[in-house]
Amino acid sequence: MCYNVRMKITIPKFVGECVSLLEAGGHPTYVVGGCLRDSLLGKTPQDWDICTAALPEQMQAALIGIRTVPTGLSHGTLTILGGKMSVEATTFRRDGLYLDHRRPDSVDFSASIEDDLARRDFTVNAMAYNPKEGLIDPFGGQRDLAAGLLRCVGDPLLRFGEDALRVLRLVRFVAQLGFVPHPQTLAGAKERAGLLRAISAERVQAELDKLVMGEHALAALRIAAESGVLAEILPEFTHCIGFDQRSPYHNLTVDEHSFVALVSAPKELEVRLALLFHDIGKPATATIDEAGRGHYKGHAGVGAKIVRKVLKRLRYPTKVAKHIEKLVAFHSKQLPPRPDVIRRFLGEHGEVFTRDLLKVKAADNSAKAPICGDRSQLYKQLSGMIDDLLAAGDCLTLAGLAVNGADLAELAPTGPQTGKVLRELLKLVWRYPEKNTREYLLAQAIRLLEQKKTDKI
Considering the entire predicted model, what is its pTM? Predict the structure, then answer.
C-alpha cells in the first residue's frame, strides 16, 4: 500500500530547480533518503538526494545549463553542482544479487519510485517527496519516525544479508537519532553481525566516528556490545564486554565504564575514541589478590599498544592515531596542581595534548565508583593553571630560554654537552620561571659546564 500524504517540506532553491527541470522533461522526480527523514524530524539536512525516472543521459539533457559529474553511471548516479551545493541524483532502480554482502552485482533501472524505495534499508529512509504529490510512504516510515523506531524494509535477514554495512548503520542511527531498533530488526542484526567482516576498514572507521559522536552514543554502544556488532568491528574490545573489575573504585564493567566515560566527555572525536579504548588493556593485565580484588598494573601501557594496532587496522590518520594512543598511555598519570609540574608537562607534551588529557581524566573519573570522589574541581583547577601559565608567558620549551646554543658556544666548545646543559637550564626555569634571564642562566651554564668537565676527569 502506498500512502500519499499532503504536506509542505522546505526544499532548498537549487534542489527545487533540479526537481522542476527533470519533471518538466517528463521524468517523475522525488527528494529521498536521509534529507527527507531529517526534514520530517524538523532538522536541517546537510546533504540532499533526489531520485528520478530519468536515465543519466536524460538527466544531463534536462538539467540545461547546470553542471553534472558522472559519479556512478553504472548505478545511474550523477552529482549535480550548484554553487556551494551539490545534489546526488539517481535513477529509480532495482538491485540484483549482493554476492559480496556489500554491493549489488547488477542493477535494473525502473520507472517506479516504489521499486526504488523497496530496496532501501530502513522504513524511515524509504520515503519520497514531491511538491506536487506530497509524501510517498509505502512502508510506514512516517509512522516509525513518530514512534522513534528503526525497522527494516521487508525481511531484516535479507536486508542485512544484502549489505552488511546496514548492521553498522543501524547502530549508528541509534546514536544519531535516539531511535530504538524494532525487535525483529535487532534480531536480524545480531544474526548477520558476522558479515561485518566484509566491510572495508575505511567504512568501519567512518561509522564508528559517527557512532561515538552521536547524541545517543551510550544507548548505541550498549546495543553494539550486546548484539555482537562491537566484537565484530573491534575484536580487541571483546574481552572488555561484561568484564567485572572487582574493585571498590569501579562499580561498572570495563565496557560500561568506558561507554559512560565516553558520553561524559565533550564531543571531540579523539577524546571520545581515547575513552572508548582507555581501559582496553585491563583484561590482559588483570590479577586478583587474596581478598578477591582486581589489580591492573601497567594496563595503560598495554592498552596503548593494543590501540596502536586497532587504529592502524582501521586506517586512522597517523597523527590522529598517535594522539589517541598517547592519551590512552597517559590516562592514569597523576597531575598534581603544582605550577612547576604543569610547566614541565606542557613543555614536554604541548598544550593540545595536556588539555585533551585533562578531558579524558575528568570523564574517566566521572564514571568511577562514588568512593573515588568528584575530582571535577581538580581538573578545573589544572585547566585554570594552564591558562595562567600561558598568559604569563612562562618558559616551557628550549625556544623560550633566555639563552641558546650559540650563547653556550661562546663559553665552551660546542658538542653534546650543549644540549644537556640547555635541558638542565630548562628544568631550572620550569621550577623558577623568574630566573629565565640571560645573566642568571649564563652563570648557571658556566657552573654546569665546569661540573661536567670535572665529572669527565
Answer: 0.92
